[in-house]
Amino acid sequence: MAAINEKELRNLKIPIPPPEIQKEIKNKVKEIQKMRRETNTLVREAVKCIEEMIEGEVKSH
């Protein structure tokens, strides 16, 4: 960025959490990713069920 010069950027202190906190973060991210995959699967299954119900009603009319 033009608003920050290189010297200022190099002198920035970036805090790094201790290893046990990093591990907790990693585990939470993995858990969230797993939950997102499961949620996506459930949504696809629900959409499929709804489509099948709609098709069944259209065929019965």
Please characterize this protein's 3D structure.
The protein has 61 residues and is mainly alpha-helical. It has one domain. 79% of the residues lie in helices and 0% in strands. The chain has two helices and no strands. The chain starts with 5 loop residues before the first helix and ends with a helix. The relative contact order is 0.06.
What structural category do the secondary elements indicate? mainly alpha
Helix content: over 70%
Q: What average pLDDT do the residues reach?
A: 92
Tell me the Rg in angstroms.
24 Å
* N→C terminal distance: 63 Å
Q: Biggest β-sheet, characterized?
A: none
Q: Judging from the principal axes of the Cα atoms, what is the shape?
A: elongated
- Helix and strand string, N-terminal first? HH
- Total number of domains: 1
> DSSP helix count?
2
Beta fraction: under 5%
In total, the number of strands is 0
Low-confidence stretches: none
